[in-house]
Amino acid sequence: RGQQQPLQAALFEVPRQEFSLPRFESEPIEDAYDELNLIGFPVSVSHFDMLRTDFRGGARASDLVPAVGFTVRMLGNLVTIKYVRTSRGELMHFGCFLDVNGEVFDTVHFPDSLKQNPFRGYGVYLLQGVVTEEFGQPSVTIQRMAKLPLKPDPREV
Of 82, 75, 69, 84, which is closest to residue 105 (Cα–Cα)? Predict the structure, then answer.
């Protein structure tokens, strides 16, 4: 009984066919754009790796406490914006960013600065401002700000 082959297997024996798949090639930037399109943020690389520039800012979040009172230039990946009205009814913002090391830092955008340098959606910004400290927490009062362009998707060039 254990040595006999079932009748069905003998009647319907199908030859096994071997397949070989072509080698799939992709660039990390292509994967990052796929991730951006599918889930809204890159997973395989950071937003900073997608920038056209290699500049990573002159300061990091960890550098802010010793830099109180000084002007700094830094890069930040926008996390969120808080919208606030001043006593005059003008719009101002408080921003929350991640630096290239993944550390959080806060920004203050007064009405005059905000009119000259508005937010342009999520992404990485080049920020310039004066470091201030309140309740032991540093923040950057923004003087100038610009959203940085990403490398192009090579499939769309």
Answer: 75
